[in-house]
Specification:
With 382 residues, the chain is mostly helical. The chain is 57% helix and 6% strand.
């Protein structure tokens, strides 16, 4: 079904201002990514009526958070002086064990990580109690609604409202994020994303981390973050966070690409009634081949900033892998880390883990083609 109403950037900005009573968005560099995204949503995404309303609400909320960020920084200028240390950005193709590794490492008492409720609501509500009960409640409600709109998603990616979550959800507020072409069919936005300089977005990611640290002064630990998005901006990550290492998770694209296509199909179905699995599979196969080619170039220039982890090892010997990665980050694991890792693995076994079935052919792909297209990567890392 084709939506008859289009998203309008000026209207979104006005709605965000009306919602917050604020008008200062700060540096307007974000207008370019927002304009590109909205144009692509209007012309390519085939939003359903529900998808249109959800998207308009979401973009308004993200713009409102930009206004609140600037207001918070004006009220508390010392936030901008907070030192942010990022020890690692875990990235690899989606569906390569990065979530398990992230949540396992985040259990270490030596590091901190972005939590699901706070990437959804990073700024304190007015008059909120110190423990953020209102934001936590809202995050739980939001998660329940998402589960209703996308019931298959929980079988693909277990989300825990108070557990570690991807920092790309903070980047969503910059409108420079792989989230958008994962939830929507917006290929022209995807082309723009992979050709633009993402430095302004990563400067703002640092600002969001400062805000989170400001709310928890005892949280001045190195961050361990995670998102496949960072593969699209490896050099920018390393430039923005000088102490950061890229922890690259590796799994055969023959498995990873169809698995992510299955996830995208589940996510995008809540926004559009025009879902083409073949188009999804072919889009992400091309995207990931290009991304991994670019990754190889970035890596060759700074090989000492990378740590490699294989999916099979993360699954078969997670404790050993977690200890090895901490060592590579200059944070040798001790008894407290081991106990935390064991506790997480025990808890992880009780969380819901569904199963989903798919084949490459469901998405217009074949194992032979994937093996050929990604041979340049598999021969080096697998």
């Amino acid at each position: 079904m084709t939506v008859t109403t289009e998203l309008n950037v000026s209207e979104l900005l006005d709605k965000a201002s009306a919602k917050t009573g604020l008008t200062d968005f700060g540096d307007d560099w974000f207008r370019e990514p927002l304009d590109v995204l909205v144009r692509s949503l209007n012309t390519e995404a085939a939003l359903s009526p529900l998808g249109f309303e959800l998207t308009r609400h979401r973009l308004t909320a993200l713009l409102a958070d930009r206004l609140r960020l600037r207001a918070l920084q004006r009220a508390h200028p010392s936030i901008l002086d907070i030192e942010v240390r990022v020890a690692a950005e875990i990235c690899g193709l989606p569906r390569t064990g990065s979530t398990l590794l992230h949540r396992l490492l985040s259990a270490s008492p030596q590091v901190t990580s972005t939590l699901s409720w706070e990437v959804a609501y990073p700024i304190p509500f007015p008059g909120e109690a110190p423990d953020a009960p209102d934001r936590k409640r809202r995050a739980q409600e939001r998660m329940q609604m998402f589960a209703q709109l996308s019931p298959d998603f929980g079988d693909l990616h277990t989300v825990v409202w108070d557990g570690p979550e991807e920092d790309v959800l903070l980047l969503d507020r910059t409108f420079v994020s792989m989230s958008y072409d994962s939830f929507y069919r917006v290929p022209s936005y995807g082309d723009w994303l992979r050709s633009t300089d993402q430095s302004p977005a990563y400067r703002e990611l640092r600002e969001w981390l400062q805000v989170l640290q400001w709310q928890s002064p005892d949280r001045g630990l190195p961050w361990v973050l995670k998102s496949p998005h960072h593969l699209t901006a490896v050099d920018t990550v390393l430039d923005t966070f000088p102490d950061c290492k890229i922890v690259m998770t590796h799994r055969s694209p023959v498995n990873a690409v169809p698995s992510y296509a299955s996830m995208v199909r589940a996510m995008s179905a809540q926004y559009s009634e025009n879902i083409d699995p073949v188009r999804i599979g072919q889009y992400w196969s091309r995207r990931f081949a290009m991304t991994l080619n670019d990754f190889a170039t970035a890596r060759s220039a700074r090989p000492d900033r990378f740590v490699d982890v294989r999916f099979a090892d993360t699954v078969s010997k997670p404790l050993e892998v977690a200890r090895q990665v901490l060592d590579e980050l200059g944070l040798p694991a001790g008894p407290a880390d081991d106990a935390a890792f064991e506790a997480y693995l025990t808890r992880n076994r009780t969380e819901r883990h569904g199963s989903h079935s798919y084949t490459p052919t469901d998405f217009g792909l074949s194992e032979d083609q994937l093996e050929r297209d990604f041979a340049f990567y598999s021969e080096v890392y697998l």
